[in-house]
Write a structure and sequence with these properties.
By secondary structure, the protein is mainly α. The chain has twelve helices and two strands. It has a two-stranded antiparallel ribbon. It is globular and about 70 Å long.
Amino acid sequence: MLVWSRGGRALAWLAGGLLFAVVYGAPIVVIALGSIAGHWNGVLPSDFTLRHFGEALSGDSSSELRVSIITGFVASLVAIVLGTWAALALRAMRTALRRILDLAFFIPSAVPSVSVGLGLLVAFSQRPLLLNGTIWIVLIAHLVLVSAFAYGSVSAGLVRLAPEYEQVAESLGAQPFYRLRRVTLPLVLPYLVGAFSLAFALSMGELGATAMVYPPGWVTMPVGIFALTDRGDVFNGAALTMVLVAVTLVVLVGLSRISNRAAAP
């Protein structure tokens, strides 16, 4: 650390802890309290109840949870396949074209998600690619937004991969597809799982582009939360937010365990 004295380190840890509590902890605590509050007329809520969670797990809210999970898994899986394919293809290139294409993959992450949604809405509202009003335009929007992170994670894994493993396999007569399937992909599996986890988490929380393009029968949880709070139903919106956080964390913890097992020698 840059602070050498014991008192200075303690003060730095205290300041960091307070900053973390205010910036990250306080919003989560407020949402958690709101999800179980019956009324909130003072500093703290009152009449605690679990009724909001019952409503969040039934009716339209349960459908929104299913839609978010399906959208997240499909968009993340396709992003991993395309990102891995692109990272492997650009890995062998040593020209300026590689830098240009590498930059092109990160452009969607630099564009506001609302702009991505508007672009897709304009692009796919005319024949022959008339996707407006279908679930496909939602899946494409999420794919565009998470593909940059999937590509970046896989590319980072390939950069850290020692070439000796593939060279040994090649010297033993292994064909390119065999090397890819039995050597390269198993070695970068932790990065693949990490890329999928990041893409899934981003997809589960995506709102801007989804609000621009979603059809009436394919509403994700962030859109549902926004609709509830926009109508003033803050408590049910808070409960739905906690459900979204819990489901995302469960999936990420499961994927983390898979990644740790893949990384273990």
